[in-house]
Design a protein that fits this description.
Largest sheet: 6 strands, parallel
CATH class: Alpha Beta
Shape: globular
Number of strands: 6
Bound molecules: farnesyl diphosphate
Structural class: alpha/beta
Order of helices and strands: HEHHEHEHEHHEEHH
Strand order of the largest sheet: 3-4-2-1-5-6
CATH superfamily: Decaprenyl diphosphate synthase-like
Oligomer: single chain
Radius of gyration: 19 Å
Amino acid sequence: MIDPQLKAQIDPARLPQHVAIIMDGNGRWAKQQGHLRVFGHKHGVKAVRSAIETATELGIGYLTLYAFSTENWNRPQFEINALMELLVNTIEKETPTLMKNGIRLETIGNTDQLPKDCRQTLLKTVEKTKDNDRMTLILALSYSGRWDIIEAVRNISKRIQSGDLQPDEIDETVLNSALNTAAYPNPDLLIRTSGEQRISNFLLWEIAYSEIHFTPVLWPDFGVEDFCNALLDFQSRERRFGKTGEQLKTP
Ligand code: FPP
């Protein structure tokens, strides 16, 4: 539940349609408390829940969370196992809440690489929630922007090879529709926690015109207020999409 005073500051007519989040800082948060990194991931789930609740309450249409990157497979096996277990348990536990709140779960990424129980749990919840239409929650799992672009290029090449497409016909629409994110609008706002100011191979194609909000808050501490502050920051920006400020003022 968002504090009414804070909520009143947000212009409901100028909300981002799609927010994407790089949830960073779980490990550092755990270390600060004298615990193992996995402890940070466990607390990160609370922040995931809070972000989903906030986005749903405000009426944001799409929320994409970078939960596990292609590069995260290089982490110690113990940490990978713990993250996968956390994912399965959280999805199983939260599916009734997703149903109650009209949230559709979808995934992007090379989910074939995930452990079988993880894939099955995800598939079950994706299928169960597919008719929900209040908000789409997209989990990026075994995902990277470069991986998706390479997959898209492979698919487009196959279409050319089969004569279905001519090289000259390749344009933004063709590439867009070959990406895992084809069904979603591009993110209007990208948030990264933990003070790091980089993109880390997330939605590379899709964030061409996204506003980016960096915050020093570590992911497990990222609460309703932090999300609302990111939205207020977003609403303070002028999105020009390559045009001049003057052009935007003339209808
Ligand atoms: C980054 O912090 C976080 C991750 C790689 C995993 C995020 C996973 C969760 C929040 C829990 C499960 C998610 C869902 C959707 C149920 P880091 O480990 O890179 O932190 P550091 O930069 O401080 O080391």
